Amino acid sequence: MGIGTVSAIIMGMAFPYFSLLFGQVTNVFSKNESSQEMVDEATELCIKMIYLGIGTLLISVVKKAPWMIVGERMNIQFRIRYLISLLR
Predict the structure, then answer these.
(1) Percent of the chain beyond pLDDT 70?
(2) CA distances from 54 to 32, 43, 62 (A)
(3) I need a labelling partner for 55 at 20 to 30 A (CA). Which of 7, 64, 73, 86 fits?
(4) DSSP one-letter code for 31
(5) What angle do CA 67, 61, 72 make, to 5 degrees?
(6) Which pLDDT does position 52 carry in this prediction?
């Protein structure tokens, strides 16, 4: 469960970082630079955004898996206890 909690914290930090990257992309388009420099900077930032998206996808899987396992185990225990109480 600790891994799931740490992953949730990391995933929570990903979205503000995405906002910062998006702000940098808009700043690149507002500068008065040559078109090739603008394209190069925007491409670099877009690649960072893609990496951030892939990382967010992987972290979301790591975040959900431990909590799903714990939930399933608790559900099994509840069902066993309920069945035992019915059979008494």
Answers:
(1) 100
(2) 32, 17, 13
(3) 73
(4) S
(5) 30
(6) 93
